[in-house]
Design brief:
It is built from 16 helices and 15 strands. With about 425 residues, the chain is an alpha/beta fold. It has two domains: about 230 residues, 3-Layer(aba) Sandwich (Rossmann fold); about 160 residues, MOFRL domain (glycerate kinase, domain 1). The strands form three sheets. The chain has a six-stranded parallel sheet, sandwiched between helices. Strands 10-11-15-12-13-14 form a six-stranded mixed sheet, sandwiched between helices. Helix 9 crosses helix 10. It is globular and about 65 Å long.
């Protein structure tokens, strides 16, 4: 199936190990990171820290490149994955996602201690990828881990997008929102970043631990009010945000802060790279192909209807591309959870799309989370075609009920139409493919 083949190509293109090897080279005593160059002989220690769903593979690649030059390191990786990687002196600490846990918090605390111990002649390399916000949670004074967990759960169900969620999280952290950079002074700090946020804003990826934060306490309060969860936020968190909004607590480090003078942030991979790889595979397969966007956002149901509408247009008119046609869209949708089913944003997106293409011959859509984990499920996403709802009816499945109950995973599992990749060790948002033969 062309759609699945293109997804496979996309995942190969965002392999974190290969991305690090592509962007980082050592020649003699010099380390080259894209256009940047550092003389390793000028540094007494090289300290490696970081976290996220891709950090294990990133750390393994960095160990391959630098070997014994690394003095010490600690990186938070996804729970249950540490044994997969060979990282030498870089200790792998398992951390929870999407809900932060104590293991991740203790790892973040140890990373902060390593950063604060660094001197002017030390180089800190920070490996950052999607999932880092939860996996490097370090509540600020006055907040408990339980408070952070409660806030995260509220945000995940609210329909807030990742950038909005991270505005809130930055203002409740001693690690994110530029604080890591502030506390790493006067060392040189190099961050290698795999982006999981639409548009690659440095301040939002993993909540920007090494980037200046343009957002404020007031912004965080407004987001919580926007999604009508302010009154459900634990009282200690509301108190911190209100004090910060009144100027009684220090803001996160802002653009122009001297803390960032010695910081270099480098994006090594993103959603666009995955989309272009998918496009290349579809061209090889003989499709007229167009990359629609690597910036889609919005409710999963709405995105699904939109993509399916384009498929229908191609089927009936040959616009915007003649058949066989393929479209690629990347980004990240959201789900406002109102039911109590088991779903994920990519599967909900596909269930919504299936309604629009029912009966269409030669039409297929697929959508996955590039981390291989769609919401609270073991599926990466799902695939649909013109027969999906007819097969569902034959199997006694009610698509309307599944959609209203946010129960897309149960629906697609019963049909055998989930896409199962397992955790990919990477994370650059979602990718959706539309094929019309």
């Amino acid at each position: 199936m062309a759609a699945l083949s293109s997804i496979e190509a996309a995942l190969l293109a965002i392999d974190p190990s290969q991305l690090i090897l592509d962007h980082v080279q050592v020649q003699g005593s010099k380390i080259h990171v894209d256009s940047l160059q550092f003389d390793l002989d000028q540094f007494k220690r090289i300290i490696v820290i970081g976290g996220g769903k891709a950090s294990g593979l990133m750390a393994q690649a960095l160990q391959t490149i630098l070997g014994d030059r690394i003095s010490v390191g600690l990186v938070n990786v996804l729970s249950g994955t540490a044994s997969r990687y060979a990282t030498g002196k870089i200790v792998l600490n398992e951390a929870g996602h999407p809900i932060p846990n104590n293991d991740g918090m203790q790892g973040a605390r140890r990373m902060l201690e390593l950063a604060e111990s660094a001197q002017e002649n030390d180089l800190i390399i920070c490996l950052i990828s999607g999932g880092g916000s939860a996996m490097m949670a370090l509540p600020r004074e006055g907040l408990s881990l339980e408070d952070k967990q409660a806030i995260t759960k509220l945000l995940l169900r609210s329909g807030a997008d990742i950038a909005e969620m991270n505005v809130v999280r930055k203002h409740m952290s001693d690690f994110k929102g530029g604080w890591l950079a502030r506390k790493a002074q006067p060392a040189t700090l190099l961050s290698l970043i795999l982006s999981d946020v639409v548009g690659d804003p440095l301040d939002s990826i993993a909540s920007g631990p090494t980037a200046p934060d343009p957002t404020t306490y007031h912004d965080a309060i407004e987001i919580l009010r926007k999604y009508q969860i302010w009154d459900q936020v634990p009282a200690p968190a509301r108190e911190i945000l209100e004090k910060g909004d009144k100027g009684l607590l220090p803001e996160t480090p802002k653009p122009g802060d001297p803390a960032f003078a010695g910081v270099r942030n480098v994006i090594v991979g993103n959603n666009r790279g995955a989309c272009l790889a998918a496009k290349g595979r579809l061209v090889e397969l003989g499709f007229h192909t167009q990359l629609l966007t690597s910036h889609f956002e919005g409710e999963a149901k709405d995105v699904g209807i939109f993509l399916a509408s384009i498929a229908s247009e191609i089927l009936h008119s040959g616009d915007p591309l003649p058949r066989p046609a393929a479209l690629i869209a990347g980004g990240e949708s959201t789900v406002t959870v109102r039911g109590n089913g088991v779903g994920g944003r990519n599967q909900e997106l596909m269930l919504s799309a299936a309604i629009k293409i029912t009966g269409g011959k030669g039409v297929c859509l697929a959508s996955i989370g590039t981390d291989g984990i769609d919401g609270p499920t073991k599926a990466a996403g799902a695939v649909v075609d013109g027969s999906t709802l007819m097969r569902a009816k034959d199997n006694g499945l009610d698509y309307k009920k599944a959609l209203s109950n946010n129960d897309s995973h149960t629906f697609f599992s019963a049909l055998g139409d989930t896409i199962m990749t397992g955790p990919t060790g990477s994370n650059v948002n979602d990718i959706a493919i539309v094929c019309v033969a």
